[in-house]
Amino acid sequence: MRFDMRAAIYARYSSDNQREASIADQVDTCRRVIARTGWQEIGTYEDRAISGASASRPGYQQLLADAEAGKFDVVVCEALDRLGRRLADVAALHDQLSYLGIKVHAANAGEITPMHIGMLGTMAQMYLADLRDKTRRGQRGRVQAGRIPAGRAYGYDIVESDDGDGGARQINPAEAAVVRRIFEAYAAGHSPRRIAHDLNAEGVPGPRGGRWRDTTIRGQVDRGTGILNNDLYVGRVVWNRCSYVKNPRTGRRVARPNPPDQHEVVQVPALRIVDDALWNRVKERQNALHFTVQRDDSGNALNRAHRRRFLLSGLLVCGHCGGRYTIIGVDRYGCATRRSQGTCQNNRTITRQEIERRVLDGLKDRLLAPDMVETFMQAYQDELKHAQCAADADRERLEAERAEIQGKIDNILQAIEANPEARTLASRLNELETRLAQIDGELERMPEPEAVELHPNAAQAYRRKAEDLQSALEDRNRPVRAALASDVRRLG
């Protein structure tokens, strides 16, 4: 590698038994490498408490974007597994950086080559698989010993066990009484929402000390979540209900319920809070309601319906409690906090059509007023000119650098013709030609400069689009969300 290279540092630590200072330690190690090689540090990219199994890391993604922009010539990291744990991600990164003419240098291995990618990348991926297996094995062992693998279930306190190992529980009498009350109320026909309202009205603290929600009580039957589905209340620990896999695109964990024959079940009678008779009454009611919701009049299974999204979905807020205003009935918005917790006194509701009409009227009558449109047009024009000037400046800089490099190449070629033994000049020539190819690629990807002006009738076009949008919202046969997104893009 040459000595005048611009170096970028990448550092990362996961949340697995590591600490914040790990970033500073990694950066210091990389800076020592840069100082030793004589490179120029241009910046640091960091990801804190984020697993290397996912490429969806802010610092990592910014590193890729700046690599495309040609902001550095080499990436320096403490070890290859800092860049990623998955072999596919590391290999793809190396291929992309190689295409851009950017090197990768690890403090513990030197310049990274395809051989390193194959060996170190495989080791990093094996480490992830081994860590996952060891974690599951440890959890299974704790379950088989009658311990809770993780979390503090409502109704219990964590206690120190005789062997000093965590996971031991004992019943919390006050919380256990609330658990029995919830089971009895549900079995008697009360809904989880009604139960949550009653508990909140009496000031009974929820599992985390806050308010009760209907979802906290209801949970999901197949995953064993929620108060009504926790087998621990009848004296048994059930583990491995779900398998968790990471989506390779988003890096998010996705739960997949396992069949019952894969569940680990251990009896812990000392932790029983609810008797079998009450538990079975709750299960019978859950099964009956589940059948009613999931079947039509003929008993045929219904497809799970996706919640419809409207123009203002997720944007409305209750002015009384600050909670969300959501659809609580047929085309009617109301306070979600009042509905799920019963703690908000705002009982006012409004139809979807009325609130959307008010918003669109505001769009037409206020945002499209002549003085507002004139201000917008001027600001938009200024922004266009600013963006064009920035693009022109980048193009001029690259063209100037290209001319300078081309001049150096011509001089080196002349020197080599005069002295064919000048091998160092040949090496320098190769570096300059690589950079020249990078510049040509950047110039080729740059859009041609063009003058962009707003049409003098832009204000009238805005008003027409707003009126068309209102018509689209009133047409139930037209995909509202798609029409909105399309029209708003045209308006902007």
TrEMBL record:
It comes from the Bacteria. InterPro entries: DNA_bind_recomb_sf, DNA_bind_recombinase_dom, Resolv_N, Resolvase-like_N_sf, SSR_resolvase, Zn_ribbon_recom_dom. Keywords: Coiled coil. Residues 377-442 form a coiled coil. Residues 6-154 form the Resolvase/invertase-type recombinase catalytic domain. GO terms for molecular function: DNA binding; DNA strand exchange activity. Residues 153-292 form the Recombinase domain. SUPFAM superfamilies: Resolvase-like (SSF53041). The keyword Ribosomal protein does not apply. PANTHER family: DNA RECOMBINASE-RELATED (PTHR30461:SF23), DNA-INVERTASE FROM LAMBDOID PROPHAGE (PTHR30461). This is Recombinase family protein. It comes from Ferruginivarius sediminum.
